[in-house]
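Continuing the series of single-chain predictions for the mutant panel. This is the parent chain; the variants come on the following pages.
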Amino acid sequence: MLEIFATRMDTTGTRTVPRLEHVDQIERDCWVNMVAPTEEEIARVREHLALPPEFIGYSLDENERPLIDHDEDTGCILIIVDLPTARTESGRPKYETSPVGILLADHAIVTIATRTFPTLDAFRQNQVRDFRVDYRTRFTMQLMYNGAKDYLRTLLTIDKTIDDAERKLSRSVSNQDLFALMQLGKTLVYYSTSLKANLTVLERLSRSRTVKQYEEDADLLEDVMIETRQAIEMTQIYTSIINGTMDAYASIISNNLNIVMKFMAAMTIALTVPTLITSFFGQNVKFPFDPGFLSNPAPFLITLGLIAGATTAVIWWLNRRGFF
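Parent structure:
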């Protein structure tokens, strides 16, 4: 997908506000948004803008880490950051991160990604305040700022999901809920890695002389760094919560298993007592349905008494020892 946007100024009364508008051709001070572009779309953009081919390749690599690079021949600057995204898998939301390439070309800005992002959609739908594509550095800072905000919003959603899973597990420990917690733990690890890499890019931007910054841009960059650090701290907190929860439920499961094993061992011991006693008598004890039982019922009654007494004594002793 290839989209081209330009900023037009609308005057309402005494106020002039920027408005994002779709255009058909690449023009000066435009924004080119490419999502999973075809070879023809890439060739079209490269025909109008001097973009190094390796910068495009880096931006389309799902495994590329956040970075900042400068091509001295074309003057193009590449900034890659990880943004949060979500998809549904087996009826459950799966939170991920994916790289977005921001190319600051001569008189244009290009964003390249392999998928759509809520962060970019907000810009495309003109939902970002004071957004102008001709302010390329500020656009970059605004994009990263909104990306950090999206991380924070997603982390709050993950926190609610953790609470729901804990409530379910407090009633009954199920493999499905434990697996959901494990998936959230993996997500938080990816988030932490991406956010720390993004922060490294931001710190390099704050020291960079190749990216021209005005005073407002520097202030916005500082805000982005603050939001990113906050997201990192939240990620670490939620990771600790999940790890503690998983350890607690592992202990609960182990304790429940120990209780069951103790009970089964105690029952085995208790049920062995009657067998031991009756084995002493063998076939010499007459049962009530045998001829001549009434003439001498004592052996049978004594056997029953011994069984009942010994079993009761064993159960009492095991109970005193905490087996029941």
